[in-house]
Amino acid sequence: MRRARLGGLLAIAATSLPLLAGTTAVAASQRTTPTIGKQAAELMGSDTVALDYFGVSVATSGTTVVVGAPNHAKDVGRAYVFTNTAAGWKQAAELKGSDTVGGDYFGYSVAVSGTTVVVGAPGVVAVPAENGLPASPGRAYVFTKTAVGWTQVAELKGSDTVTNDNFGVSVATSGTTAVVGAPGHASFAGRAYVFAKTAAGWTQVAELKGSDTVSNDNFGVSVATSGTTAVVGAPGHGGFAGRAYVFTDRAAGWKQAAELKGSDTVSNDNFGLSVATSHTTVVVGAYDHASSGGRAYVFTKQGGGWKQAADLKGSDTIVGDGFGISVAASGTTVVVGASAHANSAGRAYVFTRTATGWKQAAELKGSDTVAADFFGYSVATSGTTVVVGAYAHASFAGRAYLFDV
Question: How many CB atoms lie within 10 A of CB 404?
């Protein structure tokens, strides 16, 4: 479960501050009988074994898929790159950081955009974490695809990150921009750091925090970026009601553009535990809404602000399913994970934007997933490809499943 994964990361916030962005609730239409999406492949790393947690994190861009296995090799961790070839999806690379060691958990978070891959190594307790977080400032590693394969080109850290910041818990990348979350910074108020690729290499260009974030808000637990927009989740804000903050890159630098919350979110909903963005769309998961039935909220940029466009739930999700533990977005498609569904076998739900609003288009499950596999713990989408992680499959060796939608 995601809350267990974060262990001591989510601490109770002391205050609740008013909403800054407009929220007009619009419910998404549900199908009576969900369509099951077509599975295209089942992935595992070439050397993954039990307890590797392959599938804790997934990312995709075009014909590339990246899957993290943070517990591989005594918790050093790995990330695996797969490409879609004429013969199907094949592993193209196995990545590790140039200086990673046991307990770094390289692969805890992954992101990909074109020929750039970013991998987080926050040094956090194995998933799921039960005993809080050990001392670690954390790192993120950048790899680029070259003529000879995937090569590490940068090792990132925040300009002021220190022990217990857990820099790298979340990563995102778009074009020449990378965003890395450090939710433990400043007594768990949290930060997110923006890096840009320049002629001199990858350089930090901004340090983000919410305009009203305080201790235990866990700003940076989740991050997403698309173009000149970055989104950062702070699920601990306001007694775990949670918030998500939207930032834009302007002539004067990165500035906060909106503070989002769901139209019906309340304390303990953990709104912001997951975030995603694509162009003018932002999606935010609230894993604990409605006694853990969960929700995902879609916001669109309209005029000068961000407005809530839909409140999503799965057509057959019930209390305890944890819908919203993971979210992804690409164009007019949104994917939401519900890893606790059906005795934690898990599901993922695909929604599409139509002329009449957001509608569920498919319900996904792995061809061989069983109870306690946690399918849907991580999701990613690009174009017509959806990737879903099931980190507990096969004695926690883990799997990732690809679907054409």
Answer: 12
